[in-house]
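Researcher: Structure for this, please.
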Amino acid sequence: MKKWMGMGIGYYALCISVFWTGYMWLTERYQIFNGPVDAAGREPFFHWVKAFGILLIVPLGFLMVAAGVLTYRHSSPRPRLWITVLLGMLLAVPAAFEVFFGLVLFILFFHGFA
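Model: Predicted structure, token format:
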């Protein structure tokens, strides 16, 4: 368990450090927050934020489904395979909403409404 936790922390630390470095570089290069920005600067900035939003938010959806399925598998005295599959499919629906709205909030927070 500690190995997986360390890998997850390492993944997020690496993604956040690369994202923040690129975010700062793009804001300085294209002067994102200093007046009007042309499309040549806004487009790569949006794609950068969107790509890292996907890299940071989508694994949380998978973790949400895995946590629910593994909780059932470990707490049930006789876990059934069909219930596990059904539970995974049912948990995929709120996980998809979480990923979608998490990505929208990430883009709005780091890119803004512009």
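Researcher: Any notable elements?
Model: The chain has one domain: 2-110. The mean pLDDT is 93.
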